Task: structure prediction
Amino acid sequence: MDVLAGLLDGPRARGAFLLRMVMAPPWSVRVEDRAPLALMCLTEGEAWIVPDAGKPVLLRPGDVAIARGPAPYTIADSPTTAPTALVGPGGDCRTLSGEPLAERMSMGVRAWGNDPEGSAVLQVGTYPMAGEVSGRLLAALPDLVHLRADEWSCPLLPVFEEEIGRDDPGQSVMLDRILDLLLVVALRAWFSRPEAGAPAWYRAMGDPVVGRALRLLQDDPAHPWTVASLAAKCGVSRAALARRFHELVGEPPMAYLTRWRLDLAADLLRESDATMEAIARKVGYGGAFAFSSAFKRVRGVSPQEHRTAGTGGTFVLPQRQQSSL
Result:
């Protein structure tokens, strides 16, 4: 398995919230939609993204930002401009006093703003539902990713900008797929940077022993692995593998395997109609009971609760574990 492909194989937008924002200063929009992920590409002018925790980020033309929810943030012409609009779940936009703004600021198909001739133009794509983005990916990202125009390149960005305002048959599906590709391109550029803070297991892939062990676990999670069998495949002693694996990954091999199996299962629960028994066996458990017990112990909810949440429940970010970062 290409480890980066494994990490990025997850974005599956379904009816994403897509918008072309056109704004003239002063302007400021508070975003509290609790969406798991939003991608913002600035095509004209300047805009600031102001997270509640962390430094404000200035976007210039060609820059892309990825906001990881459910933490709120503000988009504005200046970090000091007070918000006049509030975006809630489902893209519902109102004034701070609760008055609807959707119709007042509508500029046509997927276009919204305070001035058609505004100097700032921002293309926004939001994954509104839990389950549309892999939990493994979300847990690996900071709250805000920023790539300057010279740090990433995607020929689909002009296509996205052109298509976002069209209303042809099947347009929403086409835009969903373009959004997925834009996100993958941006994240690929992000994870290639030394300062990206990739998960420890991702960095450990470069180690000749631990990297091989990780690939074996990731490629065949259903195999009945033990530390001894894994060490034999890697050509080292059981003790040597256990020690080095823990040093580089931050947790024992079997603990990593358990999380990997349950992460895969979590995605399968959201993305397929497979039975609990089928999913359990696919990820290495003898049956649905053992799988359900492990899932609830590690993730805090039952597999069924996790699957139900993916159809419209409140988004809860998988808990970050020190060992994974």
